[in-house]
Amino acid sequence: MSSTLLRTVPALRGALRASRATKPAAALASTSFVRGKATLPDLSYDYGALEPHISGKIMELHHKKHHQTYVTGLNSALETIAEAESKGDFTKAASVAPLLNFHGGGHLNHTLFWENLAPASREGGGEPSGVLKTAINDDFGSFDGFRKQMNTALAGIQGSGWAWLVKDKQSGTLGLVTRANQDPVSGPYTPLLGIDAWEHAYYLQYENRKAEYFEAIWNVINWKTVASRFEKS
């Protein structure tokens, strides 16, 4: 993940100041851009590598179709903002803020999500170790207690959204938060692990049995990535 959004697209700074929509800018600060445009990230594993827990067909559609839609929408929103700012039309720029939040959040959330996963035959599944394990035990009582709380949070999402393991930037403690739709985690929290509760993440395989998906995905969580985010944040 390379240059920041505000450096790559200077027009966004003024537009978001005018609209007071600072949350999307902060949330997108770590995503990658090429020549000023967001790009679909490559996966470090094949689409079928997470089977039987997540089917290859779901992974392909989720990545190539759904995530690409967010990338396209984000680039469109940024272009509209840049054009509006060049014309001094800050009302137009502000009106695009919800699209920037939705598509930008979708791009960020999914970029983190793919990194959260790994084949069970490699680094996926099991339990965390080291300082992350200690922190989970301290803040949730045990790994099993954390997992149960995360699944409860996921089951409680009405409609579409995400559940996240987060680190409080001030206290350094861990917690759980949920976000509706594609709202990104921002403000006082650093996102460490996110699980997608949108139907497109599971329906082709699990249909309406989303609780089974919430259980299955633990078999492909890449705890090395989660631990790296925890230690660097």
TrEMBL record:
<dbReference type="InterPro" id="IPR036324">
    <property type="entry name" value="Mn/Fe_SOD_N_sf"/>
</dbReference>
<dbReference type="GO" id="GO:0030145">
    <property type="term" value="F:manganese ion binding"/>
</dbReference>
<dbReference type="Pfam" id="PF02777">
    <property type="entry name" value="Sod_Fe_C"/>
</dbReference>
<feature type="binding site">
    <location>
        <position position="200"/>
    </location>
    <ligand>
        <name>Mn(2+)</name>
    </ligand>
</feature>
<protein>
    <recommendedName>
        <fullName>Superoxide dismutase</fullName>
        <ecNumber>1.15.1.1</ecNumber>
    </recommendedName>
</protein>
<dbReference type="InterPro" id="IPR036314">
    <property type="entry name" value="SOD_C_sf"/>
</dbReference>
<dbReference type="InterPro" id="IPR050265">
    <property type="entry name" value="Fe/Mn_Superoxide_Dismutase"/>
</dbReference>
<feature type="binding site">
    <location>
        <position position="196"/>
    </location>
    <ligand>
        <name>Mn(2+)</name>
    </ligand>
</feature>
<keyword id="KW-0464">Manganese</keyword>
<dbReference type="GO" id="GO:0004784">
    <property type="term" value="F:superoxide dismutase activity"/>
</dbReference>
<comment type="similarity">
    <text>Belongs to the iron/manganese superoxide dismutase family.</text>
</comment>
<dbReference type="InterPro" id="IPR019833">
    <property type="entry name" value="Mn/Fe_SOD_BS"/>
</dbReference>
<feature type="binding site">
    <location>
        <position position="62"/>
    </location>
    <ligand>
        <name>Mn(2+)</name>
    </ligand>
</feature>
<comment type="function">
    <text>Destroys radicals which are normally produced within the cells and which are toxic to biological systems.</text>
</comment>
<feature type="domain" description="Manganese/iron superoxide dismutase C-terminal">
    <location>
        <begin position="128"/>
        <end position="229"/>
    </location>
</feature>
<dbReference type="InterPro" id="IPR019832">
    <property type="entry name" value="Mn/Fe_SOD_C"/>
</dbReference>
<dbReference type="Pfam" id="PF00081">
    <property type="entry name" value="Sod_Fe_N"/>
</dbReference>
<keyword id="KW-0049">Antioxidant</keyword>
<dbReference type="InterPro" id="IPR001189">
    <property type="entry name" value="Mn/Fe_SOD"/>
</dbReference>
<keyword id="KW-0560">Oxidoreductase</keyword>
<feature type="domain" description="Manganese/iron superoxide dismutase N-terminal">
    <location>
        <begin position="39"/>
        <end position="118"/>
    </location>
</feature>
<dbReference type="GO" id="GO:0005739">
    <property type="term" value="C:mitochondrion"/>
</dbReference>
<keyword id="KW-0479">Metal-binding</keyword>
<feature type="binding site">
    <location>
        <position position="110"/>
    </location>
    <ligand>
        <name>Mn(2+)</name>
    </ligand>
</feature>
<dbReference type="InterPro" id="IPR019831">
    <property type="entry name" value="Mn/Fe_SOD_N"/>
</dbReference>
